[in-house]
Design a protein that fits this description.
Helices cover 33% and strands 15% of the residues. By secondary structure, the chain is an alpha+beta fold.
Length: 305
């Protein structure tokens, strides 16, 4: 029995019957919802004369969600992106389901994304308030009072506002201040963070924002980031290339946390999980001979395929 439960008209036109009206579910056949994975696992792996004689569905659900979370960080295609204009404050708030970034870039007038490099020459540290004797000040509950903005951030913003942080001065590799601080003893090379004109950024995790250099003010920024795959029901899907690895993860997790499980069984299922995870990574890596040949030809190396 086929797995497709829609006609071609229903797939292409969606519920409202209008082409490309953003209510369609294009490309959904490559993914499997987490509920289907849990149901299939309960049928295929749990029961008499099966790998697990008895287990609660809530336990399977917990390990399935944990598997999606772990695999989303390095294997499942959970890359997301958001596009915004940089405001005058030179920062924007991280998305609600943000876990870590993969790339930041700004888009030029031709639609080309130009990479932005992360900087480590500044930050926004916590700034406790001090009195005239340089002692910390406290509120009525005994907690340390802190400034809303650190002095480092204020000076960085003032410096940016004055126009010092452009590609021709402060972020130029020939700037004497930066040469003295970051290139002493190694002036034979270039620091990619500084030797470019696309601007810089850093993640202010304490405040949940991304901060930019002034040359990016008003630019159209694209943030590509990864989530954990559990932010919403729409996110909790698994690519079909990784479904077997999810099953093996759930099976190993249940047996390894269950008392009186024979050690050789745990070790066997651990090996099976490693093999299934490796196969899933290979399949999801999208390595194709044509792409490899294309890259190598660009390097003046001819490859037959």
């Amino acid at each position: 029995m086929g797995l497709i439960d829609k006609t071609q008209e229903e797939y292409y036109l969606g519920p409202d019957g209008i082409w490309d009206s953003h209510d369609e579910d294009y490309g959904s056949y490559q993914f499997v919802p987490i509920n289907d994975i849990i149901n299939t696992f309960m049928v295929a792996y749990v029961g008499e004369n099966k790998n697990i004689s008895k287990v609660k569905r809530t336990d399977v659900q917990f390990h399935a969600m944990r598997a999606i979370q772990e695999f989303s960080f390095d294997m499942l295609p959970q890359d997301k992106s958001i596009e915004i204009d940089v405001p005058p404050g030179l920062y924007f708030v991280l998305p609600q389901d943000y876990v870590n970034f993969t790339k930041l870039s700004w888009t030029d007038t031709q639609g080309i994304e130009r990479p932005i490099y992360r900087t480590n020459i500044t930050s926004n540290p916590s700034a406790p308030l001090q009195d005239t004797d340089y002692e910390y000040t406290f509120d009525q509950n005994g907690n340390i009072l802190k400034a809303e903005k650190s002095e480092t951030l204020k000076r960085w913003n003032e410096r940016s506002t004055s126009g010092a942080s452009n590609a021709n001065s402060a972020f130029n590799i020939n700037n004497p201040d930066l040469l003295g601080l970051y290139a002493y003893g190694r002036r034979y090379g270039l620091d990619s963070e500084l030797a470019q004109a696309n601007g810089t950024f850093y993640i202010d995790n304490a405040n949940g924002v991304v901060r930019f250099s002034s040359d990016l003010r008003g630019k159209l920024i694209t943030l590509k980031y990864i989530s954990d795959g559990l932010g919403s029901d729409e996110d909790m899907v698994v690519h079909k290339f990784a479904v077997d690895a999810i099953y093996k993860y759930i099976l190993y997790a249940i047996l390894s946390t269950r008392a009186n499980t024979q050690e050789y069984l745990v070790a066997r299922h651990k090996r099976e999980l490693a093999a299934a995870r490796r196969n899933a990574k290979i399949r999801l890596s999208q390595l194709k001979s044509e792409l490899i040949a294309q890259v190598m030809r660009n390097q003046s190396k001819w490859i037959k395929h």
